[in-house]
Amino acid sequence: MKTLLVFRHAKSNQGHKALDDHERPLNKRGNKTAPLMGQWLAQQHAVPDLILSSTAKRAVSTAEQTAVAMGYEGEICYDKNLYLAPPNVCLQAVRSHAKAHTRVMIVGHNPGLQALIRAMTGVDRALPTAGLADIHLELDAWLDLTSHTTGQLSHFWLPRELFP
Question: Fewer CB in 10 Å around end: N or C, the chain?
Answer without folding.
Answer: C
